Each structure stands twice: as C-alpha cells, then as structure tokens.
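#onboarding

Welcome to the new folks! Below is a worked example of what a typical request in this channel looks like: someone posts a single protein sequence, and someone else replies with the predicted structure as tokens. Don't worry about understanding the tokens yet, we'll cover that in week two.

Example request:
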Amino acid sequence: MAEPNFAVPRSTFNSIAPPDPARHLDRILRRPQVEFLTGLPTSSLYDAIRQGRFPQPIKLSVRSVGWPESAVLAWLSARPVRQPAGR
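Example response:
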C-alpha cells in the first residue's frame, strides 16, 4: 500500500495575506498554515496553546480544527522583535 502524501501544496501558502478590514471576513487557517506563519512545529504549537500563550483553535469538524487568521496575525504582531547582539 502506498504511503499517504502529507505535503502541503505551495499554493496553500501563496494565499496567506493580511485580512482586508473592508471585507469583515476572517479566514480560518489550518494547522500547516499556522505552522508556516509562526515557525512553530506541531508539538510547540500545542504546548503554547496548553500554556495559554497561543490562541485556542476552533473546532471545524470531528477531526479538524482551525484558527481565525486575525488571531494568528495578532499573536505574531504582539511578539517581541529580537534585536541583533551588540547594537
């Protein structure tokens, strides 16, 4: 039996853009998109959720969750920017 392909298509990440406030829509990002945007692997993402340092996902179905794009972008913008050493 062939192994399942869990690769995320490149087109998934090409569509990530800041939300348009005029549209009042908030896209739902799936875990691979959240991992790509945050740079966090799955285990670190769920550890941060458990510790209250990352937004809780919303349940989409029995076996799937997602995050509002605005919540992920707000989390990213609230993170401190690391300054290079010696400056």
